[in-house]
Design a protein that fits this description.
Shape of chain B: rod-shaped
Number of helices of chain A: 4
Mean pLDDT of chain B: 67
Number of strands of chain B: 0
Strand content of chain B: under 5%
Helix content of chain A: 55-70%
Order of helices and strands of chain A: HHEEHHEE
Number of helices of chain B: 2
Number of strands of chain A: 4
Structural class of chain A: alpha+beta
Radius of gyration of chain A: 22 Å
Low-confidence stretches of chain A: none
Radius of gyration of chain B: 27 Å
Oligomer: heterodimer
Mean pLDDT of chain A: 90
Largest sheet of chain A: 4 strands, mixed
Largest sheet of chain B: none
Chain lengths: ~140, ~80
């Protein structure tokens, strides 16, 4: 009498255990913090885009942006572009941290940064510069 | 005999629960992260969807071309 009931309960429990393994392969990016970072980066992009195209600014391996060739800029533009780069990197660092936190896995931040680092480069337009695995700058 | 089956099941269940917890904690969903990254990057950089397209998540692709408005470009502002 007891055993069939226990067996049934055990079976149900075992079935429910297998659930999370499949359902959790999803990354949450719909939080207010992430949305505002995305918006801020999207607005800044129109200012940064000409500098990507000119090769003054490039994409680094660690998911950030950096001044690649300051000589491509007139002297007066260097300070504003440096400020743009700093603001962009601040948002990007916050984005990676927020995504890890939104998914309750702060320790994923490095993995998320690495994923983004690769995808920014993969999706970059032809002519933009990025940092190769050995640290050298490559024109796409 | 039956009792030993019960304990064996219980042991299996405990093991499954524990390994489940461990798996969930260390597993980084790389494919899902890549998709999330693409979604964000496409938004930030205002990219069109890639032409080779990921396998149909959004349902079947219509076989007909999307109708495009063929109207001439309107002047930006009527001159008053």
């Amino acid at each position: 009498m007891r055993n069939p009931v226990y067996r049934f309960i055990l079976l149900m429990l075992l079935l429910s255990v297998s659930g999370p393994g499949y359902t959790q392969a999803n990354i949450e990016i719909d939080t207010p913090a992430i949305s505002s970072l995305r918006q801020s980066m999207q607005q800044r992009h129109s200012q940064l885009q000409p500098y990507y195209e000119r090769g003054a600014v490039g994409l680094t391996r660690d998911g950030l942006v950096a001044m690649r060739d300051a000589n491509a800029l007139p002297l007066a533009a260097r300070q504003p572009v440096n400020a743009l780069i700093a603001a962009e990197n601040q948002d990007r660092n916050a984005l990676y941290r927020e995504i890890a936190r939104a998914n309750s896995h702060p320790e994923w931040e490095a993995d998320i940064r690495a994923t983004f680092g690769q995808r920014w480069i993969d999706l970059a337009r032809p002519g933009w510069w990025y940092q190769a695995a050995n640290g050298s700058w490559v024109r796409k | 005999m039956k009792n030993s089956f019960f304990y064996a099941s219980l042991l299996t269940l405990t093991g499954a629960l524990l390994s489940g917890c461990v798996t969930i904690n260390i597993y980084f969903p790389a494919a899902a992260a890549e998709k999330a990254a693409d979604k964000i990057i496409e938004g930030v950089w205002q990219l069109k969807k890639p032409e080779d397209g990921a396998p149909g998540v959004d349902g079947p692709i219509p076989s007909q071309p999307i109708p495009q408005p063929e109207q001439p470009v309107q002047p930006m502002q009527p001159q008053n």
